[in-house]
Write a structure and sequence with these properties.
By secondary structure, the protein is α+β, with helices and mostly antiparallel strands. It has 10 helices and 19 strands. Among the domains are: about 100 residues, no CATH class; about 100 residues, Double Stranded RNA Binding Domain, CATH 3.30.160. Strands 8-7-6-9-10-11-12-18-19 form a 9-stranded mixed beta sheet, with helices on both faces. The longest helix is centred in the C-terminal third of the chain and has 14 residues.
C-alpha cells in the first residue's frame, strides 16, 4: 500500500472527522481507537457513498488494498453482502443484504443508546461484528448479546470478534423475536429497520430500558427512534435523525406487483384525469416521504423513467383497490394526474403533504413514536398528545 494513502486516510483521520461532526463523543473515542473498523470488514466490499443508497463496484483487498483501506476509513457505508449471499461479484447484485454502516450512523446510534456501566445490551443484526466489538469494549463481553439471522455472517463475525479478543454471545436466529434466554435487557439496539417495533423487544426489556432502532413507514422515509420503556410496557420517544437501513430480513416489505392494479401499457384506462401545480419532484425528499407515509400507512410508490429527466410516479395501496399516476416534466408548471379506484390516492398524498407543509415542514427530530409493540403504534409531532393525523378523514 502506498505510504501516502496510509497517511491521508486511517483511524485517526476518521476519528477527527467524526469528532468534528459531533458523532463520536469522548466516551466512545477509546472504543473507536481500540477496535479499528478494518478488523471487521471482509476482503470483498462494495463501497458506498454518504447519504446515498448507491454502491460502487466490488473492491477486493487482495487486488486493490489502497482502495479497500480508503473505503474502510471513509465516513460512508460499505455493502458486504448481496442477495442474502447468493451473489458475490464482480459488479453488483440485485439487493444489498448486509453492510458495515456509515461510522457517523454507528456512533450516533451508540450515543443515543446512553449505555451505563453494567448494562446488558441486546443487538439485533450482528453484521460484520464491529458494533458488537465496540460495545464489548465499553461494557464487557458478558453484557453483549447479538442476534444474526444469517448463519454465515454470524460465523464470520464470531471469528473476527475472537481474533480481536472479544467473546460476546452471538445467536443465530430471527432478530424480530429477540433472545429471551438472556433477558431482561437494559438496552436494545437494531442495525436493521422495522415498520413496527416487535413486541418481543419490549417484553424482553427492563422498565426504563431504551430501544434504539431505525423505523419507517411503507411509503418511504426512515429515521432512528429512541424509545424509553415505562412501567406498563409502553415504549415512547423522539426520532433522533434520518436513516436508511436495510429492513430486518424477516420483516422485509412484500408489496403487490404493479400488474395487479393495471396494464401500464393501456394507461390511463378511463381513469379520472386532473392537473396539479404540486410537482411530483416536491414530494420526493426523505422527510417528506416519511410525513406522507405515516399519514397514509398503506400507500406505496414506484417510478417509471422517461426521457430528458421526465418520469411517471405511480401510487398504489397495499389493499390493491386503487392506483394513481403523476407525470413529471422538467420545467413544468402543472402536472398530469390520473386516478382510478374507490380512493383518490394523489389527493390523499397531496393532503398529507400540505399538512406537513402547514406544520412548518418539520424535520425528523420533531416527530416521535409511541408503541406497545406489534403493528399498533402512534406517530406524533413534538408531543405524544399531538398525534399525526392518519386516514383521509383527517384532512
Amino acid at each position: 500500500m502506498a505510504s501516502e494513502t496510509m497517511a491521508e486516510v486511517g483511524p485517526e483521520t476518521l476519528a477527527a472527522e467524526l469528532v468534528a461532526k459531533g458523532a463520536l463523543t469522548t466516551d466512545w473515542l477509546p472504543a473507536f481507537r481500540t477496535v479499528p473498523r478494518d478488523r471487521f470488514v471482509p476482503d470483498a466490499i462494495w463501497p458506498g457513498r454518504a447519504g446515498m443508497n448507491r454502491q460502487d463496484d466490488r473492491v477486493l483487498r487482495s487486488e486493490h488494498p489502497e482502495l479497500w483501506w480508503k473505503a474502510v476509513y471513509t465516513d460512508a457505508p460499505i455493502t458486504t453482502q448481496w442477495d442474502d449471499g447468493a451473489y458475490g461479484g464482480p459488479g453488483r447484485g440485485r439487493t444489498p443484504s448486509s453492510s458495515s454502516s456509515m461510522p457517523t450512523m454507528v456512533f450516533s446510534m451508540l450515543d443515543a443508546l446512553s449505555v451505563e456501566p453494567g448494562n446488558r445490551v441486546l443487538e439485533i443484526g450482528t453484521g460484520t461484528g464491529w458494533s458488537a466489538a465496540l460495545m464489548c469494549h465499553r461494557l464487557g463481553d458478558q453484557n453483549v448479546v447479538s442476534v444474526e439471522l444469517d448463519a454465515t455472517l454470524a460465523a464470520e463475525a464470531r471469528s473476527r470478534l475472537f481474533a480481536a479478543d472479544f467473546a460476546p454471545e452471538i445467536v443465530v436466529g430471527d432478530g424480530a423475536v429477540g433472545y429471551g434466554k438472556r433477558s431482561p435487557y437494559d438496552r436494545i439496539i437494531a442495525t436493521a429497520s422495522v415498520g413496527h417495533v416487535p413486541s418481543q423487544w419490549i417484553g424482553q426489556a427492563h422498565p426504563g430500558a431504551i430501544i434504539v432502532t431505525p423505523w419507517g413507514p411503507v411509503y418511504g422515509g426512515e429515521a432512528v427512534a429512541r424509545l424509553a420503556i415505562d412501567e406498563v410496557g409502553v415504549a415512547r420517544g423522539h426520532f433522533v435523525g434520518s436513516s436508511a437501513f436495510m429492513r430486518l430480513r424477516q420483516r422485509r416489505k412484500s408489496l403487490p406487483p404493479s400488474g395487479r392494479f393495471l396494464d401500464q401499457s393501456k394507461w390511463p384506462l378511463g381513469a379520472n384525469r386532473t392537473k396539479t401545480p404540486l410537482s411530483p419532484d416536491d414530494v420526493g425528499d426523505w422527510i417528506c416521504m416519511f410525513a406522507i407515509g405515516v399519514q397514509v400507512p398503506d400507500l406505496f410508490c414506484r417510478v417509471t423513467w422517461g426521457e430528458e429527466g421526465s418520469y411517471r410516479l405511480w401510487l398504489f395501496d397495499t389493499g390493491v383497490t386503487s392506483w394513481a399516476s403523476a407525470d413529471y416534466v422538467v420545467g413544468g408548471e402543472e402536472f398530469e394526474i390520473a386516478e382510478a379506484g374507490p380512493r383518490r390516492l394523489w389527493q390523499e398524498l397531496e393532503g398529507a403533504y400540505w399538512w406537513w407543509h402547514q406544520q412548518g415542514r418539520p424535520g425528523f427530530e420533531r416527530f416521535g413514536l409511541t408503541t406497545r409493540g406489534g403493528p399498533t403504534y402512534k406517530v406524533w409531532l413534538d408531543d405524544p398528545a399531538n398525534p399525526v393525523p392518519v386516514g383521509r378523514s383527517s384532512w
